[in-house]
């Protein structure tokens, strides 16, 4: 699993995907595919790809849940493990896409 895979999934499914960093902070990949570390005010001393490799739990939050829609039951954030996220990423990963058909 790569950060690029999370970015693609967050865009396609309009999700905010969050995971904890080793230093206690949290990385959030928003629905536009941008990875952010809220509260970070200096050049980080960590690599997000490496932090993602060690993450075991993720929070998926539908992007529309942050907007007042007037509905009684807005979609709620849910926590999933690495295995479940890997399953969700399977169609997003390279090689899993349908092959291109060439015209003859």
Provide a descriptive summary of the structure in words:
This protein is of the alpha+beta class and 104 residues long. It has one domain (3-67, 75-89). The chain is 25% helix and 21% strand. The chain has three helices and five strands. The protein has helices at 3-13, 48-54, 82-89, and strands spanning 15-20, 26-29, 35-36, 57-62, 78-81. The chain is globular and about 35 Å long.
What's the gist of this structure?
With 104 residues, the chain is of the alpha+beta class. It has helices at 3-13, 48-54, 82-89; strands at residues 15-20, 26-29, 35-36, 57-62, 78-81.
Please write out the topology.
Elements: H1 3-13, E1 15-20, E2 26-29, E3 35-36, H2 48-54, E4 57-62, E5 78-81, H3 82-89
Antiparallel strand pairs: 1-2, 1-4, 2-3, 4-5
Please give a handful of descriptors for the protein shown:
104 residues, alpha+beta
Distance between the termini: 36 Å
**Overall body shape:** globular
Beta-strand share of residues? 15-25%
Which structural class is indicated by helix and strand composition? alpha+beta
Number of strands: 5
């Amino acid at each position: 699993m790569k950060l690029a895979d999370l970015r693609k999934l967050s865009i396609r499914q309009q999700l905010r995907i969050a995971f904890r960093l080793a230093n206690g902070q949290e990385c959030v990949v928003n629905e536009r595919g941008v990875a952010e570390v809220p509260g970070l005010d200096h050049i980080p001393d960590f690599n997000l790809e490496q932090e993602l490799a060690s993450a075991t739990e993720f929070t998926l939050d539908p992007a529309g849940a942050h907007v007042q829609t007037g509905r009684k039951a807005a979609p709620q954030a849910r926590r999933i493990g690495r295995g479940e996220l890997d399953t969700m990423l399977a169609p997003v990963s390279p090689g899993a896409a349908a092959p291109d058909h060439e015209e003859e």
